[in-house]
């Protein structure tokens, strides 16, 4: 989800730079609202990978459908097996194609050297630096035939869904709905795909307690869906029944979640998709980094480096995606000193700090 959300500023810049261009975006159905919000010159095409486009037969069916649409230029921003097949088929049909360079060599060097040593090694040599994902996407679009000037991204318009109907939340039906009426609303997305990117649950509980105690007029909205998330969130709802709400209980789809994110004063997110979704609606995001590091290029769009919370450890990052075990000697499996070194007080202070953009 995060990779898809990070393409939105690039697509917006593309249609603004080339007014005559019609852009089609191929992705999963959940992403449709992100791109339909960019205007009539952006068309969304659904890849139904669990239905008609499932498996190799379905993938070939998708390729045939795309060939009939007559695309002249193709930018593969995903660079996985499915997109490789699609790209090759469209190239055979005469389209000019380009694909994402994931800079695997530089990523391996970053993880082996650690961020501080890696950045010193990079120095002023742009060829050594890992580009942000946004820059990498822009390079693909340029190779496909449509270069983008760097300054165009300074004018990104957040996808604040002002035109969506304001939902009314029935406190008698939805647990924690009272929290949504609080004057100050914080968002917390405490889960990630891998434990090396997650704050421990007791620490998140301390954080919520600190926010609610320090600011009696505040409420907290929890973001995340899944069996594990539901169980943890239910226990927190019981502890703070009128001050905490769960986004999944009040949001039917991604559009509702974007609307809710746009109302937050601050979103706290791990290195996961929610940091990118909240950034798209112009919400300030405080991010937590454990095994991973912003130097790998996944910093959310338009956010401040000062809002990246991380431990100063020379071994970081040890993973690009947070899916490795800690490589320090003597550390038990499942433990991550880099994430455990972050305190609830530090995160709460960052969330409650006022930035110039909050004024």
> Helix content range of the residues, please?
25-40%
**What is the percentage of strand-forming residues?**
5-15%
Which spans have pLDDT < 50 for at least 5 consecutive residues? none
Radius of gyration: 21 Å
Can you describe what's shown?
It is a single chain. The chain is an alpha/beta fold. Helix content is 38%, strand content 13%. It has 15 helices and ten strands. The strands form three sheets. The chain has a six-stranded parallel beta sheet, sandwiched between helices. It has a two-stranded parallel ribbon with strand order 1-2. Strand 1 (23-27), helix 3 (32-36) and strand 2 form a beta-alpha-beta unit. Helix 4 (55-68) runs parallel beside helix 5 (81-92), helix 6 (104-113) crosses helix 7 (115-122) and helix 9 crosses helix 15 (344-352). The longest helix has 14 residues, at 55-68. It is globular. The mean pLDDT is 90.
């Amino acid at each position: 989800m995060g990779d898809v959300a990070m393409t939105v500023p690039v697509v917006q810049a593309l249609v603004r730079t080339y007014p005559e261009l019609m852009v089609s975006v191929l992705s999963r159905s959940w992403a449709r609202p992100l791109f339909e919000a960019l205007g009539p010159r952006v068309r969304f095409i659904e890849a139904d990978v669990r239905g008609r486009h499932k498996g190799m037969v379905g993938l070939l069916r998708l390729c045939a459908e795309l060939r009939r649409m007559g695309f002249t230029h193709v930018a593969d921003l995903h660079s996985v097996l499915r997109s490789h097949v699609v790209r090759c088929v469209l190239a055979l049909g005469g389209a000019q194609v380009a694909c994402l360079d994931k800079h695997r060599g530089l990523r391996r060097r970053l993880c082996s050297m650690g961020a501080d040593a890696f950045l010193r090694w990079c120095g002023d040599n742009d060829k050594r630096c890992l580009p942000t994902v946004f820059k990498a996407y822009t390079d693909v679009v340029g190779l496909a035939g449509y270069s983008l000037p760097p300054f165009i991204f300074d004018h990104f318009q957040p996808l604040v869904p002002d035109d969506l109907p304001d939902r009314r939340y029935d406190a008698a039906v939805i647990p924690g709905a009272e929290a949504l009426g609080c004057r100050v609303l914080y968002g917390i997305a405490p889960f990630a795909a891998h434990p090396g990117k997650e704050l421990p649950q007791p620490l998140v509980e301390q954080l919520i307690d600190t926010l609610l105690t320090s600011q009696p007029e505040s409420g907290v909205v929890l973001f995340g869906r899944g069996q594990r998330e539901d169980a943890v969130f239910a226990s927190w709802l019981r502890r703070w029944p009128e001050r905490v709400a769960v986004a999944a209980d009040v949001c039917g789809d991604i559009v509702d979640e974007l609307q809710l994110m746009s109302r937050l004063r601050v979103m706290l997110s791990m290195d996961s998709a929610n940091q990118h979704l909240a950034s798209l609606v112009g919400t300030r995001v405080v991010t937590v980094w454990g095994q991973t590091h912003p130097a790998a290029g996944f910093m959310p769009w338009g956010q401040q480096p000062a809002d990246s919370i991380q431990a100063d450890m020379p071994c970081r990052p040890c993973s690009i995606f947070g899916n490795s075990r800690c490589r320090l000697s003597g550390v038990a499996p499942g433990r991550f000193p880099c994430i455990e070194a972050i305190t609830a007080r530090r995160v709460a202070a960052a969330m409650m700090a006022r930035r110039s953009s909050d004024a």
